[in-house]
Amino acid sequence: MNALLSNHFMKWLGLGLGAVLILCLMYASVIFGVIDTSWHTAVDAYTHFDGSNEHIVIKEVRVPRALIAAAVGLCLGMAGALLQALTRNPLADVEIFGLNSGAALAIVLAVTYFSVQSLSQFTWLAFAGAAISGVLAYLLGSAGREGITPVKLALSGAAITALFSSITHGILTINEQTLDQILFWISGSVAGRKLVYLTNVLPYMAAAWIAALLVAKPLHTLMMGEDVAKGLGQRTLWVKIVSGLIVVMLSGCSVAVAGPIGFVGLVTPHLSRFFVGIDTRWVVLYSGMLGAILLLAADIAARFVAFPNEMPIGVMTALIGAPGFVYVARKGLAKG
After folding, report:
1. Domain boundaries, the chain
2. What is the mean pLDDT of residues 180-197?
3. Which residues contact 15 (CB under 8 A, 6 or more apart)?
4. In the predicted model, is pLDDT for residue 184 greater than 70?
């Protein structure tokens, strides 16, 4: 299937329009909710702060929430694109491959048994947990005579996710104190997060975004085949290792800030390929943009679906991503 945006001008134009849409969604995220405000009120909250409920809500809740949703969506979209390219598996996602559940388990263990409370320590724990679960999923998917296959990778990732999620919920069930401390975070949400959560990991996020764009070109070459890549002088092992580390950083940062949020990285690469084709450089870029758009839109929708109550954003992304997962899986099986 030909890409919808067939030339570089159209692709750059699409990026520009996407950036405008992100700003519009961030505006809507700040303005709309249980307490509707206005842009003038939002500006006054920073220029003429008076301590009113509206100003406090804007500064302490709405603006951090919009910024976190955009940043985490960008991380998850890029991570999904890199993971699908690295594994050549259209079902790959940080949630399905167990990276999110591994990061969550590492933090729950640290809080429960070592009384860790530092946000900076959360970040490193999330990195470690995501890396361990990713390695385990890869090793399980590589076992057997036929070696590693996309289906085996997906199944091993699902097994790791089920195992780590079960352990996490078991720990929380028998330890009520930890449950009270971490339940708001483990559910996966951008609501109630302070801006310091984002600023604490922003340097790592920014480094991972830049690294993802830089590794996209050699990763695209690798997708042509390992023999072809080696023939062009590429050190394929290093490309795989670096790509894996970037995915871990992106996943770890998103979990440290917002908890485990699934399906964003599954859907956005497929949408990106519809718009820009199979060039990994453009797919990674568009996946990040679409991830931010998707998470912002899901967060806004979550406020009104069960109004005046709020639905968890993880439920909204699952409602969007689960049908996409089924479609991609059925399409892959039909081809097989």
Report:
1. 8-27+54-335
2. 76
3. 285, 286, 289
4. no
Of 198, 214, 199, 209, give the one whose Cα is nearest residue 288: 209
Is the bond preceding 308 in cis, omega lying within 30 degrees of 0?
yes
Q: Which of 99-103, 121-125, 140-144 has the highest mean pLDDT?
A: 99-103
Which residues, at least 6 apart from 279, have a Cβ–Cβ distance to it below 8 Å? 220
The upper half-sphere exposure of residue 290, i.e. CA atoms within 13 Å in the direction of its Cβ, equals 27
CATH 1.20.1640.10 describes domain 8-27+54-335: no
Integer Cα distance of 296 and 329 in angstroms: 26
- The pair phi, psi for residue 32, each rounded to 5°, is -100, 145
Strands of the chain (E only): list them.
none
CA neighbor of 71 nearest in space, from 185, 197, 184, 214: 197
The amino acid occupying position 285 is L
Reply yes or no on whether the pLDDT at 336 is more than 50.
Answer: no
Cα–Cα distances (Å) from 105 to 116, 261, 284, in that order, read: 13, 14, 28
- How much of the chain is helix, strand and coil, in % rounded to 5? 80, 0, 20
